[in-house]
Design a protein that fits this description.
The chain is α/β, with parallel strands linked by helices. The protein is 41% helix and 15% strand. The longest helix has 20 residues. GO terms for molecular function: monooxygenase activity; oxidoreductase activity, acting on paired donors, with incorporation or reduction of molecular oxygen. This is Luciferase.
Length: 386
Amino acid sequence: MSTNPVQAADLAPSSPLAAALENDLILGLFLPLQEGAWSPSSAPRGTSWTYDYNATCALEAEKYGFDLAFGLGQWLGKGGYGGETRFREHELDPLISSAALAAQTTRLLLISTVHVLYGWHPVHLAKYGACIDHISGGRWGLNVVTGYKPSEYRMFGLDPIEHDLRYDMAAEFTEMLRTLWASEDNVTARGKYWSMQDAHILPKPVHGRPVLVNAASSPAGLEYAAQYSDLIFITSPGGADPHKAVETLPAHNKKIKDLARARGREVRTVINPHVICRETEKEAWAAYQAILDNEDTVAAENFVAGFTGGDNKSWRGHSREQWVVGGNVHLVGTPEQIVEWFGKLHEAGCDGMQVNFFDYLPDLRRFGEQVMPLLVEAGLRKAAGR
């Protein structure tokens, strides 16, 4: 680039992430933007990919004091992952959904996943992101994803890109974003992969720049995250069993944070627990087993193959059964047991929990009414509204 890159720096004190960090544990909701959410199962539930359903989930999360809401992005052909459930055939776009939720929510940090290498130009995303940030009053964040599935690249008429090169490209893209958001003047830049001449973005993001996020496990991905991300979505090297997760996560979290500190930065790691909470442990495990008993076998096989067939480095420690239930770590039990596991994951170095559920609205409401007060008692969360 011909312009000086904007170096990674702490967010403005007014950023919504600063408010989230007043809690010992950041709390996010993984929105079910995609049909079937995380579980290729036909067990009874009311979870829906529709906007109205997701908006209700976001508003409920806001009411219960969640810090952020996040949606993943995907690009699938007809039938999604297949099977009788046509798993994930429908999905709302996370960037557009965030724009709509910006007008309905008042406090949640709204994070959008964008596959930045699927035909995007930094000027486009800098403009669109700043606009959503402006609409939301400074509550928009960007989850930078490079993509790794050859089928997705080919959907856009592109050839798959080698793993480490993807992160080199993502770094240049992010540098250009940050420059566009920061510069009061026109920007001219010529990089290896993108160029721009006399580019200018208004309105500017409310807090200087939006919160930046990515998910990484590989050395190249973690190098990118350590340089640019504020939040890093991590996966458990030990799979979804929380006992194994808390054994393997301390070293994993330390490695990531040491990489960032070597660059003079602080990052926070966030993990994705699938929470199945009931009044008794027996009821919770019965709900867990019901998901497995109603597995959509074809969809499950395709789902696992889709994530493990490429050069993605995450999720390698998960069994097929754990994929069917979905989520990165499975927390099953009573409200007290869920809080105990949250505490153990926090002790293992995780700064936040990005929660998903099977039957979203009833499970979210149970979490809000029964688990959240216990998280406050445990000192992991401040009471909502404080």
